[in-house]
Specification:
This protein has 190 residues and is of the alpha+beta class. The protein has one domain: DNA primase, PRIM domain. Helices cover 26% and strands 24% of the residues. The chain has 4 helices and 9 strands. It has a 5-stranded antiparallel β-sheet with strand order 7-4-6-5-9, sandwiched between helices. The longest helix has 17 residues. It is globular.
Amino acid sequence: MRDDCYPQQLNSVNEYKVIKQKFSDEVLKKHLQGLITVGSFQIDPKTNMVKWICFDFDGELEQEFEKSRTLYMRLVKKGYKPLLEFSGRRGYHVWLFIEATDASIAKKFAHEIASGIEVSEIFPKQEKIAQTGFGGQVKLPLGLHRVSNKKSYLLDRNFKALNTEESLLVLHKIFNNKPDKINITTLKSF
């Protein structure tokens, strides 16, 4: 995740502006309180590395839930530790936090693992960005969606909604454990 700038969602629209300030604990606190809604730019422009993959499912909620659950279970069966999140509006995100990996490898892995599942968007979108570029971004979990005015939340392994406190514990556990390592050569066709 880049920490030299961050995208902030504008009120009542699904658009973001770039805030060219260091991402801080105070920014994260405001996001979690619903005072602002921020995202994360994925690709580090200096190294071309990413530390997360996100699969975005948008559309009719019931159908998007089924597709996101299928991908979530596919990742679990392959030994990964994904997170499933209701995005706060019209869909779901499946997150996979990984050790720093070249964006081109992460993109290839993401598309292969999602093969046969209709995903609205897959991040990383790009294989690389210019030093002055920003690349793709996704709204951080547990934020208020400025269009729907609904907060996103995580789901547990039984697909039950977690409250904010439970979600924070899950995120804390993920970030304090070793991230997943993706291995493109071990994937098999689905």
